Amino acid sequence: PYKYTRRKRSAKKRWFSKLSSESYLRIEEESRDPDKVNVFLMNPAHLQSQFTVRGLISFLQDIYIFRHNRRLSFRLRYNFSQNYNNQFLDANENDLRKSQEFGLRVNWRPSVRLRSLTESRVRSYFRRSSANPFRNRDISGYYLVQNISYRPRSRWEIGLGNESGLEKNSNPNYPLDLWY
Question: Does pTM surpass 0.70?
Answer without folding.
Answer: yes
